[in-house]
Amino acid sequence: MLVAIPRETHPGENRASVTPETIKKLTRLGAEMVVEAGTGAGSGFSDEEFAEAGATIETDRDAMLGKADMVLRLRKPDIEEVAKLKRGCIHVSYLDPFNEHDLIRAFTEQGVTAISMEMIPRSTRSQKMDALSSQANLAGYIAVMLAAAQLPRILPMMMTPAGTLKPAKVFIIGAGVAGLQAIATAKRLGARVTAFDTRPVVAEQVESLGAKFLEIDLGEMGQTADGYAKELTPEQVEIQRQAQKEIIADSDVVITTAQVFGRKPPVLVTRDMVEGMTPGSVIVDMAAETGGNVEGSQPNETVEVNGVTIVGTGNLSNLVARDATQMYASNMFNLVDDTWDEESKQFVLNLENDILPGCVITHDGAVIHPTIKDIID
Ligand code: NAD
């Protein structure tokens, strides 16, 4: 089975979908690996390292795509590139399938099986393949680093002959994978951390990290069968905003990570709340790229409102591309390895197991994922 790795071409993208280590493991399974020249440039892996690990280095991208039985990449492909894949090819990457309808149609027209890394089920067994989690974990860590770099004070308490500095107060909204890592990182740096999430089950996890959980009575709450937050009604959002107002005004750092799967994130920090913070305070909006939890935040930009710095984040794990690549590559390997048939040395598209039906979007010329099928006309 010929498995191709195209270089990531999105501007500024430093991550890759493989490391020499995963090339070695895939080769050991019996896959014939072809890696486009320059694939590891942004994450610190050379073509020579990939070649030593067992891959052929290819400079003709189109030729490589045209003969691949399987393509492993990070970013979604351009639509024009889908037309270069051969019928029956299995393509694995992020796809943004809720929004990229034309891309999904292109996969069906080309007869390519498209697997979406965003749609890997959030189950215990699939954790090792879960790229949303692996990248969100790193992003949560970096969000705290960015806040600390902007804040005109330190995070820990410091007792010195020159006086005592109080610990900084950090408030984290949303305690999923990124939020929990942000809590853990801020705690490690000595901050006083409070957090809130609409899923009550999270309170215990927040407290086990040594942070305080802010109690807000939003009435009927809970989570979906997949463990995601349910969307709040406009009335519940308003209750949440009012209940957070005081703690936001009193915080040195606010980090927002609130997302509702497949929906626009809620605006939870309004302009007047930003204006209520002390000048010099910092907000990091980790939802900025998908619409923002903070009024006035801009993706990939840092803006100032009344002396308060608002960092709108984009692709945060890209800032630690080496580790992010290592984790993403490992997610990819585990996905391939899970249904690999040792005898025929093929990836088996088992559409009856507990993982693939959740993340295979197109197959055999049709959209087969039930949710995506419903939204694509
Ligand atoms: P996410 O990125 O979809 O959302 C981030 C957080 O925002 C979530 O915790 C969500 O509850 C919260 N949120 C939404 N609206 C909010 C609001 N108005 N105010 C405050 N917080 C709000 O979440 P995620 O990090 O991808 O995790 C989603 C779920 O999947 C979690 O339950 C997580 O524990 C679970 N998960 C399970 C596994 C596994 O079992 N393998 C792996 C990863 C994640």
Short note summarizing the structure:
The protein has helices spanning about 20-30, 45-50, 60-65, 80, 100-110, 130-150, 175-190, 200-210, 235-250, 270-275, 320-340, 355-360, 370-375, and strands at about 1-5, 30-35, 55-60, 70, 90-95, 115, 160, 165, 170-175, 190-195, 210-215, 255, 280-285, 300-305, 310, 340, 345, 360-365, 365. It has about 375 residues and is of the alpha/beta class.
Describe this protein's structure.
The chain has about 375 residues and is α/β, with parallel strands linked by helices. The protein contains 13 helices and 19 strands. Helix 6 packs parallel to helix 7 and helix 6 (about 130-150) runs antiparallel to helix 11. The longest helix has 20 residues, at about 130-150. The radius of gyration is 22 Å and the shape is globular. The mean pLDDT is about 95.
Tell how many strands the DSSP assignment holds: 19
How much is the average pLDDT?
96
**Helix- and strand-based class?**
alpha/beta
Q: Radius of gyration in whole Å, from Cα?
A: 22 Å
Low-confidence runs (pLDDT<50, min 5 residues)? Answer: none
Terminus-to-terminus distance: 34 Å
Task: Please give the count of helices.
Answer: 13
State the shape: globular
Molecules bound to protein: nicotinamide-adenine-dinucleotide
**How does the major sheet shape up?**
8 strands, mixed
Helix content: 25-40%
Beta-strand residue fraction? 15-25%
Kindly report the spatial arrangement of strands forming the biggest sheet.
3-2-1-4-5-6-18-19
Protein name: proton-translocating NAD(P)(+) transhydrogenase
InterPro entries: Ala_DH/PNT_CS2, AlaDH/PNT_N, AlaDH/PNT_NAD(H)-bd, NAD(P)-bd_dom_sf
GO molecular function: NADP binding; oxidoreductase activity; proton-translocating NAD(P)+ transhydrogenase activity
Domain Alanine dehydrogenase/pyridine nucleotide transhydrogenase N-terminal: 4-139
